[in-house]
Structure formats: C-alpha cells, structure tokens
Design goal:
about 220 residues, mainly beta, 4 helices, about 40% strand
C-alpha cells in the first residue's frame, strides 16, 4: 500500500519525496534520514489532498483534552500489554521513584517491555508466529512533548492514566511515531512505599497500546 500522489500533492512529492510506501520499514526511513522526523522531533508537513505548506500538521491537531490521535493519523498496529508497573522505594521517607515497568504483549507483536532508565523504555518485539525478532519500540520521555497523560475516564482511581506518547520504531517494524495507551487496569502509583528502602513496589497492570504514524 502506498500513499497516493494526488495532483495537488504531486509537487510536494517531486520536491520532497514525501510520497513513500506507508509500510516501508522504519529502517528504510531511518536510512532516508527521516528518523528524527519520525520520532516526532520536527514539524512535518501533511502529505495528502493539499499542498504541504498549507496543510495543518499532525502536531498542530493534537490537543491536551484527549489522548487520542487526530483523524489524519494512520493506525499501524495494536498490542495488549500485561505486566507490572514498578516503583522504587527511595529516600528516608520511602517516597516512590519514577514509574518503571516490566511487561509482555500479545497482539500484533510479542514484545518484552522494560525501562533502561527512569526516562527511556524499550519494547523488544518479535513475530508471534515465528518468534523472529522484528525490532524495537523506544519511548524517550526526555523528548519535548513526548508524554501527555490524562486520568482514566472510567473514574477508577486505581487505574493508571491513559496517555499519548511519542515513540520511535526500528528494525522491520512499521514506522510509527505515536503510541496511545488506554483501557488501563491497575498500575497506579502507590501513595506510600510499603516495601523497605531500595526495594521495588510492583503493581500489576494491563493496557491497550495502539501505535500510529502521523506526520
Ligand atoms: C482533541 O482531539 C481529539 C482527537 O482528535 C478530538 O476528538 C477532540 O474533539 C479534540 N478536542 C478539542 C477540544 O479540540
Ligand atoms: C496477565 O499476566 C498474569 C501473569 O502471567 C496472568 O495471570 C493474567 O491472567 C494476565 N492478565 C491478562 C489480562 O492477560
Ligand atoms: C523494575 O523495572 C526495572 C526497569 O524495567 C527492571 O530493571 C527491574 O528488574 C524491575 N524490578 C522488578 C522487581 O521487577
Ligand atoms: C476498551 O474498553 C471499551 C470499554 O470497556 C471496550 O468496549 C473496547 O472494546 C476496549 N478496546 C479494546 C481495544 O480492547
């Protein structure tokens, strides 16, 4: 499947090679030098139905009242996450540190999710049918605007917030740049540490993770 070069977009296609296979792998695009763009770090022109210069960007259509994507976002794949949010008990007052997580996913890919620091998390994914590695999804929360969360709308305060996150994909994964986390159960940050200092408090959680490309 390719993004059509409509007459109006033709000039942009010729000038910027903006029309490319939607399902080109992240590696293809990384090699094309657009990896930063995919990571959501730059304002990208929209590519369909209007000259790029006048089309509102995905970024401009995101708002802070909904975690969900604007209509122009293209859904790529869905994962169902199941694991624990884990919180370190730190300091003399046993406050909890930043949320980390350990999770596995079912759905489009079998992934193993973990954090390598309080700010950077990875999902290492494989094909559920063959077990072959397909690539890595990266959430870097230090990227400006990478995190927007809102309380779970079901009103259950034990459920961790819903959220929209900027992500990047590599390997043979589709070139996604946004994740929407919703339908969360559990995972909420504990009020206080009940574990000794330096130990983990583990809170089981599940969530639906929808990945999108939106330029
Ligand atoms: C925010 O974005 C969502 C998703 O695109 C949309 O449904 C909602 O109407 C928007 N809200 C505002 C206030 O623009
Ligand atoms: C999550 O994983 C746990 C442990 O493997 C399992 O008992 C539970 O049924 C799973 N929950 C969901 C919703 O898949
Ligand atoms: C908590 O999460 C971190 C980062 O993902 C992981 O390294 C650590 O093993 C986890 N701790 C436990 C007890 O699961
Ligand atoms: C999310 O939750 C709603 C309400 O329970 C449910 O109708 C919907 O199927 C869920 N979505 C997914 C993808 O599981």
């Amino acid at each position: 499947m390719t993004t059509p070069c409509t007459p109006l977009a033709l000039l942009a296609c010729l000038l910027g090679a903006l029309c490319r296979p939607v399902h080109a792998s992240a590696r293809d695009l990384q090699q094309a030098g657009e990896y930063d763009l995919l990571a959501g770090m730059g304002a990208a022109p929209a590519i369909e139905e209007a000259p790029a210069a006048e089309a509102p960007s995905c970024q401009s259509q995101l708002n802070y009242s909904s975690v969900f994507m604007p209509p122009q976002a293209q859904f790529a794949f869905r994962l169902y996450a199941n694991g624990t949010r884990n919180y370190t008990c730190q300091s003399a007052t046993l406050s909890v540190g930043p949320a980390m997580a350990l999770l596995t996913t079912t759905g489009a890919y079998s992934c193993h999710g973990f954090f390598v620091s309080p700010f950077v998390g990875y999902n290492i994914c494989s094909d559920p049918a063959t077990g072959q590695p397909v690539g890595k999804l990266t959430l870097d929360t230090t990227v400006p605007g990478a995190v927007f969360v809102a309380p779970a709308p079901d009103g259950n305060v034990d459920n961790e917030p819903w959220g929209r996150f900027k992500v990047a994909a590599d390997g043979n994964l589709p070139p996604v740049n946004y994740l929407v986390r919703y339908n969360t159960t559990g995972g909420k940050r504990p009020e206080q540490c009940t574990a000794p200092r330096g130990e983990w408090v583990l809170v089981p959680f599940t969530a639906v993770l929808d990945y999108y490309i939106c330029l």
